[in-house]
User: Fold this.
Amino acid sequence: MGKPVPVNDATFEQEVLRSDKPVLVDFWATWCGPCRMIAPVLEEIAAEKSEQLKIAKLDVDANPVSAGRFGVRAIPTMIVFKDGKEAQRLVGYMPKERLLQQLGQYINKAA
Assistant:
């Protein structure tokens, strides 16, 4: 059973850009209400889809380099990285079903 992996400016390249499977990075902050709302949704997806998709969390206040590098202006912003490149960007809270629909191309392949 998977769970979200905390990443920071120092580990971003190894954990995200060099990952052998797609990685959804949740750019969040402790003071962000919608970020707290989406956290349990991401934990469920991490637990259910860990074979196909890695979930990572990056605190934008503690890691401004990575947030700036990818132009994250609003949070929560979720970026899917595939083969070291940004593949999809989702901004704002969304319910689990909608998020799973958005991520379908990464998680509905046979494992």
User: Anything to note?
Assistant: Helices lie at 12-17, 33-49, 64-69, 96-102, 104-107. The chain is about 35% helix and 25% strand. Residues 28 and 59 are 5 Å apart (CA to CA).
